[in-house]
Design goal:
The protein has about 150 residues and is mainly alpha-helical. About 70% of the residues lie in helices and about 5% in strands. The chain is built from seven helices and two strands, in the order H-H-H-H-E-E-H-H-H. Helix 2 crosses helix 3 and helix 2 packs across helix 4. The longest helix has 25 residues.
Amino acid sequence: MMQAEEAQLQYMHLYKKMDAVYYQMAIAQKLTPSEMDIYYTICVLGDGCLQRDVCNLALTSKQTINSALKKMEKQGLLRLETGKGREKHIHLTAAGQQKSDACVQPIYIAEQQAFSEMTEPEREQLVALTDKFIRLLQKYGAEHLPEAPKEE
């Protein structure tokens, strides 16, 4: 039986390994992580999604995403359209859509294939246990750290 400390080390290693896989896929496509997050969100939610959607899905600050959006807009990859209040809708240009199709769509498809290789109970268990770990980490982090992230 695996002890909690051993499981903790293995889980952290796997977490870092998965993070590195996504980072390497972005770099291989000549994308920054923020650009990857923007294209990925549009791939999942569709053209016209909001800057807020990217921040929420990627768990990235508004400032970081805003900087990447401005850079991509200058490169002619997307255009920003003002919505209600301060909302910004993101629309890919033809060049941006072409880059998304070539760079991000293959990653999204790889994820789908990876999840398809798992049984439905395995997928449900992976999601449920990851969610449980995050909630517990937030709970105990709040007890031990003065500025720990709050539960969502």
